[in-house]
């Protein structure tokens, strides 16, 4: 949606004033026991949808800020809104044999934390759109495809596509027969599983290198669809986000590099049919027959996806449970590379007591504390980056979201300028979209693996150039 700079400034300024007023209202309602929790849920729902609408109007539906807000809704606030309308109850949480109802205090704290998050986001949006004089500029370097890198990445994807597809199909069949949790138990990971997983990882890295080579639209569409196909196969194992994140990245890159807009009708179709498909995938994961009509499946899928917000309520009601509190939860992704290097045998086990003794990962620690037997069988509660920030109180939440918005703005400015930034565009955006149900930081182990492949690709490109030069000299 394109609006004039003057209109945009008016909208953002009005939204900033609205944010101040409704944040004060939310704090009052959530701290006053005379006000029902459902009213607080209503206030935060209005705050969210206004913020999301302003973000779309002033940037676009496919800007990183808007995509982050969509993810924040899909993995949390949509469930609160549906609770307000009586379409479900987000405060009733059940998984891993745990039956848990949020306490009234936890409900109020959840509203306060998300209210502060949206308030900080809107202040950053006001600063970037109205106060800051900086203008985001695209690279002055012509967006010319880099031939050698494109050829190499194409060949790699062509070579890896079939084995990766076979592996993902095999993994999906394994889930049908052995259950979803079998994928998370180290003993079940044989050599074929590891080789197949490696082929999918290398295909993903090849696609990332392909993106960093500034491909033409036709090539991007062709290989992007292959990537989406493998991502869909991966999602059939029961991981709903395994297709959602790549799909949104595909749309984002098309808009960011080629200014290709998504058809509103297509977006509506994807929402109406894609969300129930994600719900059906969850049934496949649990080896349960789908017994709901379309409306029931749609509602249940949204509520199930929103259950990630319950992690924050659990942290409030049960405390920061951990058998290894040597460092804050938020730092676990940063030190993970060192931990994997020092304890490779422990990390190869998957879910285990030993893993929790050497690391301090919030989803693992919380899952083990509340449902140890299910955790050791491969189960988990999932994460929530706001729950990690909550360890540092109000200051942590506000500083965390301000830092995040700064990083988003910085990344959008350099993603088409820096080769390394464009290479990491997919894992960065994927992590951004999954933060409401995952960790705050992208873990260093993942970064290191992709950097190794990145260095290998550059070595192969250099070797290709040397070989081409020798052939040219010989023919001359």
Overall mean pLDDT score? 84
Order of helices and strands: HHHEEHHHHHHHHHHHHHHHHHH
- Low-confidence regions: 134-142
User: What share of residues is helical?
Assistant: over 70%
Terminal Cα span: 55 Å
Q: How would you characterize this protein structure?
A:
The chain has 476 residues and is mainly alpha-helical. The protein has a domain at 5-131. 72% of the residues lie in helices and 2% in strands. The chain has helices spanning 5-31, 37-58, 64-84, 104-131, 147-178, 191-211, 217-235, 241-258, 264-285, 294-306, 310-318, 332-342, 344-347, 353-358, 362-370, 372-376, 385-390, 393-414, 419-423, 425-434, 444-475; strands spanning 92-95, 98-101. The protein has a two-stranded antiparallel ribbon. A hairpin with a 2-residue loop joins strand 1 and strand 2 (98-101). The longest helix is centred in the middle third of the chain and has 32 residues, at 147-178. The protein is globular and about 85 Å long. The N and C termini lie far apart (55 Å). 41% of the residues are buried.
Question: What's the gist of this structure?
Answer:
This protein is 72% helix and 2% strand. The protein contains 21 helices and two strands. Helix 5 (147-178) packs parallel to helix 7 and helix 8 packs across helix 20.
